[in-house]
Amino acid sequence: MQSSQTAPTTTATESAVSFVQMLEQVRYHGAYPTRERAEEVVTAVLAALGRRITGEERVELAARLPREAARIFAAQIPATDSMTGWAFVRDLATRTGGTLATARWDVGSVLGVVARLAGPALLDRVLAQLPSGYAILFGRAELTQAA
Q1: Residue 141: per-residue pLDDT
Q2: What is the pLDDT of residue 14?
């Protein structure tokens, strides 16, 4: 006799993690005092990331994020200028009125969770699209070839 219940599957528009779960992961990893503070950070960082990623990687990454996070990320118009990882952090600090240290902490707290949601293969493709300095923001070593 077969069970009538099956495990839920994720579709291209449904993440395996809810937005609340994502916020709690960011809150835990970033040591934020409240879920509200974690949500502010997630919103700022995902909006900034949405201005940097284009093409198929953008679509696939949005599909792996919780619906609310995907909306924040996808609502941004990608910029045409190239921005290193350090410039990304500086830009976020300027936009949020925070310090460079706080912005770096916020970026790492959010992008570490985003990296896990993306998975290694998609993250490799995202990092290949971005200028230098982003790998460390996603919690990876930046491997470069000698000139």
Answers
A1: 86
A2: 53
Alpha carbon distance 18, 5 (integer Å): 21
Q: Give SS3 for 31.
A: coil
Two tokens at 20?
């609340």
Chain-centre distance for alpha carbon 1: 43
- Indicate the helix (H) or strand (E) that contains 7: none
CA distance 76 to 110: 17
Compute the C-alpha angle 27/116/50, nearest 5°: 80
CB 112 within 8 A of CB 138: yes
In this structure, are residues 57 and 118 in contact, taking their beta carbons and an 8 Å threshold?
no
Over its C-alpha atoms, the chain yields an Rg (Å, rounded) of 16
Tell me the average confidence (pLDDT) per consecutive run of 10 residues in the chain, 147 residues long.
42 70 97 97 98 96 98 96 96 97 98 97 96 95 62
pLDDT at position 115 is 97
How far apart CA 78 and CA 22 sit, in angstroms, is 23
The residue type found at 103 is A
User: Distance between CA 4 and CA 10 in Å, rounded?
Assistant: 18
